[in-house]
Design a protein that fits this description.
Length: 668
């Protein structure tokens, strides 16, 4: 029997670096000011499941992530379920944001003020991003760093505990296309992992390569992976910008493929072996065995390496405003022989000012079993350090049912946005009325309505509010999903008013017991078992009988015309008039008087609805099914208004209320 492992403890940090060529997993715990790395595992993709940092084959990436997780679980003897990840900077957008907070008097600065200040600066960055009319698609905020705090115009690196009245904050916020982020979450879901922390790869990498105490210097970190190169710059104690390039290690590999007609994996091997072997042997795609000196491969590598160095230098100058004081090269691509010298030449810097990252890892992490000074570990180590030491900016926190909500900001967030980001859908908001039961009784169609849905409950900071409410930092959301109503049901005795009537009827041509539950489409004929002579019922009595709902309550709505349209075709009419009084089964009577219909105006058009049993009220959610919207395939939020006011699902409606249930206009 397989051993049941203990669940991942709350202090266990599990980081995954989802790379273009491989996935690296790290597990550890924060101990003091550093993270103790307990285990590291790496596994390459068996095929090209990612391109330029973007997941193409979600199932394949999920499979490799699950295998890396399983290897770490075997080493640690625990079940890993919560993972920290980072998104590659493909199609990265960065924006600066500034926010000022003027207090009525001098106050001591705590976490609440810092969170409010940073959230305001992030919102300003989002506004700046939205002003760019060339931007297409939806972008999510995936991280930000504070570049400067000011207290009464005096710069500070840490605000907490200081006193001041005028507070200012500047941030650099990073945004990625929604497709990049969504695919990461889908791959983790495939691997049965819950994402508890998301940051950007360059943010994570710089936290490992350049610790905060070194950021007074003008330094740049370039994390060169297989598909992308992520770049971050810092000076004066702050990170001042991020960017990325889609030129990376794969460009070198592809140059080797073209020169020697090899497949991708063979070219990768030749690239790594060229620096340590004099003679290289391989089989080309035509099946011929080849042998060549390593110098031949280097001749192919050098031009491609020069192009990579030139692109890195261009991006570094662009983000830093010129050559920095020093450059750290990280990632697997930094191991390429001669790359530091090529980057130094492209930046016109002293070659001693460009080095491979790794020497500073010991300032934020350590391990008793693993050698961490590998530049390829920069991003996974940075993810672990960022999560373990609280280096991920997280002032915009929102709780959902007592737990931190997963948030992808792309401007102002509504409660509906937050619910959808955390796995809820419109069905959870509105529920569904139970399906109706339609049968025919003596040729007349009878409908027994299903029970209404039990409405959802949405409270924000303890107050019931509509889903369109804009969420603010530190809001607490309590949400109970709607429960669909039960389907309409009746026994034959309930439908006909008693067991005596049920005893002399046929259902689909056959007798049934009084407890028989009617099914959709059943055809019921009353008074059919005892043959008697009959005359036609008086027309007025027939109209009175057929004008009422059949059954025990007024929720059954009946169409009065027989199926063939004849006024005298009802079996009841032909059999009951001359029956002896003791044997006659009277038509079922309603238990309460019919109430007048309710009148509302939905999206400008009048809408008449039958009164509910016992004159129960109509709620806003009752009108959703009449709005003409396909709530399972909505691509935009829906606004709910009553008499011009934004309203919640449980708003009680009065006769004559003007209700609007419409999709929002598409966002620019």
């Amino acid at each position: 029997m397989e051993k049941v492992r203990e669940q991942q403890s709350r202090d266990m940090i599990f980081a995954l670096d989802i790379g273009t060529r491989s996935i690296i997993g790290m597990a550890g715990r924060a101990e003091g000011e550093r993270v103790h790395i307990l285990a590291v595992e790496k596994l390459e993709h068996s095929k090209r499941a990612m391109m330029d940092g973007q997941i193409e084959d979600i199932a394949q990436v999920g499979k490799v992530a699950a295998e890396v997780t399983a290897r770490l679980e075997a080493r640690l003897d625990c079940k890993l379920t919560r993972v920290c990840i980072a998104a590659a900077g493909r199609a990265l957008h960065t924006e600066a944001g500034h926010f000022e907070l003027e207090l009525p008097e001098v106050r001591r600065i705590g976490e609440d003020l810092i969170g409010q200040l940073e959230a305001g600066a992030v919102s300003a960055a989002e506004s700046n991003l939205n002003k760019n009319d060339q931007r297409l698609g939806r972008f999510y905020l995936v991280g930000y760093t504070v570049s400067q705090y000011l207290v009464d115009s005096y710069p500070l690196s840490i605000l907490k505990g200081h006193n001041g009245q005028k507070l200012e904050c500047e941030v650099v916020a990073t945004f990625l296309p929604s497709e990049v982020v969504d695919s990461l979450y889908s791959a983790m879901q495939t691997a049965d992992l819950e994402v508890v922390s998301l940051t950007l790869e360059p943010i994570a990498a710089i936290n490992a390569a350049i610790p905060p105490e070194l950021r007074l210097l003008n330094l740049v970190m370039a994390d060169i992976g297989a598909g992308t190169s992520d770049i971050a710059a810092c000076r004066d104690g702050s990170v001042v910008g991020y960017t990325m390039a889609t030129v990376a290690g794969d460009e070198i590999t592809e140059a080797i493929m073209r020169a020697f007609l090899t497949d991708f994996s063979t070219a990768e091997r030749l690239k790594s072996e060229a620096a340590c072997r004099e003679t290289l042997r391989f089989t080309d795609i035509l099946g011929f065995e080849q042998e060549l000196p390593s110098s031949a491969v280097k001749e192919v590598i050098i031009p491609a390496e020069g192009q990579l160095a030139d692109e890195l230098a261009r991006r570094i100058r662009e983000i830093n405003g010129g050559a920095p004081s020093a450059v750290f090269l990280a990632g697997g691509g930094s191991k390429l022989e001669g790359l530091p010298q090529a980057v130094a030449s492209a930046l016109e810097m002293d070659p001693r000012r460009v080095s491979v990252a790794g020497s500073n890892f010991k300032m934020s992490a350590f391990s008793d079993t693993e050698e961490l000074n590998d530049p390829e570990y920069t991003t996974p180590l940075g993810i672990a350090v960022s999560a373990g030491l609280g280096l991920i900016s997280d002032s915009y926190r929102v709780s959902l049912n007592g737990h931190p909500a997963k948030l992808f900001r792309s401007g102002a967030l509504t409660a509906l946005d937050v619910l959808q980001m955390n796995g809820y859908n419109y069905a959870d908001l509105i529920g569904r009325t139970g399906s109706s039961l339609a049968v025919t009784i003596d040729g007349q169609r009878t409908l027994y309505r299903g029970e209404p849905a039990e409405p959802s409950s949405l409270r924000i900071n303890g107050t019931e509010l509509p889903p369109s409410t804009v969420i603010q930092a530190a809001d607490s959301i309590e949400f109970t999903p709607a429960r669909s109503g039960k389907a309409g049901r009746r026994t034959i005795a309930e439908a006909l008013g008693g067991e005596s009537a049920a005893a002399v009827c046929l259902v689909n041509g056959a007798p049934v017991g009084p407890d028989y539950e009617l099914r959709p489409g059943d055809a019921v004929v009353t008074n059919a078992i005892v043959p008697v002579k009959a005359t036609v019922l008086e027309g007025t009595n027939k109209e009175a009988a057929s004008s009422h709902a059949v059954g025990e309550d007024a929720s059954a709505a009946q169409e009065c015309l027989p199926a063939d349209g004849s006024a005298d075709s009802s079996p009841t009419a032909s059999s009951s008039a001359e029956k002896p009084e003791a044997e006659r089964v009277s038509a079922p009577q309603p238990f309460e008087e019919l109430l007048p219909p309710r009148l509302f105006f939905l999206n400008g058009a009048p809408l008449k609805l039958p009164a509910k049993p016992k004159n129960a009220p109509y709620y806003l959610m009752d009108l959703l099914e009449h709005a003409g919207l396909d709530f399972e395939h909505l691509d935009r939020p829906v606004t709910l208004r009553v008499n011009g006011e934004s309203s919640a699902f449980m708003r009680v409606l009065a006769d004559g209320d003007r209700v609007s249930i419409q999709m929002e206009e598409p966002r620019a």
